[in-house]
Amino acid sequence: MDLPILRQALQLSGVDLRLELIVIVLSLCYLVFWIFQKQFPNALFGEDSEYAGYIYNAMGVVFSLVFAFVTVLVWQNYNGVSDAITKEASTLNNMYRLYSAFPPEVEKKGREQLRTYTRTIIQEEWPLLSNDQFSTKAYQELIQIVDNVIHLQPQTVGQSNIHQQMIHLAVEATELRRSRIYNARFGLAPPAWLGLLSSSLIFLFFSCLFKMKSVRTHLLLILFLGLTIVGVLYFLILFLHPFLGPMALNSEPFENLLKLSWIY
After folding, report:
1. Contact predicate 197/226, CB 8 Å
2. Beta bridge partners of 45
3. What's the confidence (pLDDT) of residue 3?
4. Which of 196-201's residues contact partners 24+ apart within 8 Å by CB, and which partners?
């Protein structure tokens, strides 16, 4: 299940995304404010404002705890994917270096396979990750790398030890790639996201139901509360998808292998 609206919103720049959130949230709040203040004044909290305030404070505490918990989950998922990408590139680099323990023809073939696979990740697979897809070509190339490592014929005790390490690294590279692909999706399930968003709007709309002597003061309070909620939503949305949006993870760790690590 996907959320096209969120996917479309993450196509915007950071500033445009924040402005869009501000316009949408404040427009909805002021619309609700106008409807109840002008059309349904009897539904406002008048003499009961004090008791309604207690409930409002309790709602704020519960909402803050839930929002903080969800934000931490999304942030951890984002950092987990970022860490997996770095480890995957490091694992490929270790395999590349260990090939020097084998004869020149074996070393040349193995390293060229790693270079080809890395280029496919950068050029073909990385753009697909933002759409929750992966490259079949890259997967086939990785299988060839693993098969090549498995079928190496060590000639010395040293090569035999290196061979065992390379098998371990090949398996680790496969697992890290699987982790990167499986986490190339929204860090929060759509039902949970919709529930959190609806809770935010309910919390904001509740602030429109108080009857205050100064309309100006009421509007300003709604403004600052709305901007606060927008700030938290903005942070959450930025890290909601690790490969989409202004904070999308890039392929720099793999690019550095080709540009820096593997040219010496």
Report:
1. no
2. 210
3. 67
4. 196/66, 196/67, 196/70, 197/233, 199/63, 199/66, 200/63, 200/67, 200/229, 200/233, 201/25, 201/28
pTM: 0.83
Question: Using alpha carbons only, what angle is made at residue 77 by residues 170 and 12, rounded to the nearest 5 degrees?
Answer: 110
Cβ neighbour number for residue 230 with a 10 Å cutoff: 21
Amino acid (1-letter code) at residue 75: W
- Residues of the chain where predicted confidence (pLDDT) is lower than 50: 1
Are 128 and 134 in contact by the 8 Å Cβ rule? The answer is yes
Closest CA to 204 of 3, 41, 24, 68: 24
Contact 232, 67 (CB under 8 A): yes
Query: For residue 100, which phi and psi values (nearest 5 degrees)?
Result: -70, -10
Say if CB 114 and CB 92 are below 8 A apart. yes
HEC-encoded secondary structure of the chain: CCCHHHHHHCCCCHHHHHHHHHHHHHHHHHHHHHHHHHHCHHHCECCCHHHHHHHHHHHHHHHHHHHHHHHHHHHHHHHHHHHHHHHHHHHHHHHHHHHHHCCHHHHHHHHHHHHHHHHHHHHHHHHHHCCCCCCHHHHHHHHHHHHHHHCCCCCCHHHHHHHHHHHHHHHHHHHHHHHHHHCCCCCCCHHHHHHHHHHHHHHHHHHHHECCCCHHHHHHHHHHHHHHHHHHHHHHHHCCCCCCCCCCCCCHHHHHHHHCHHHC
* Per-residue pLDDT at 263: 85
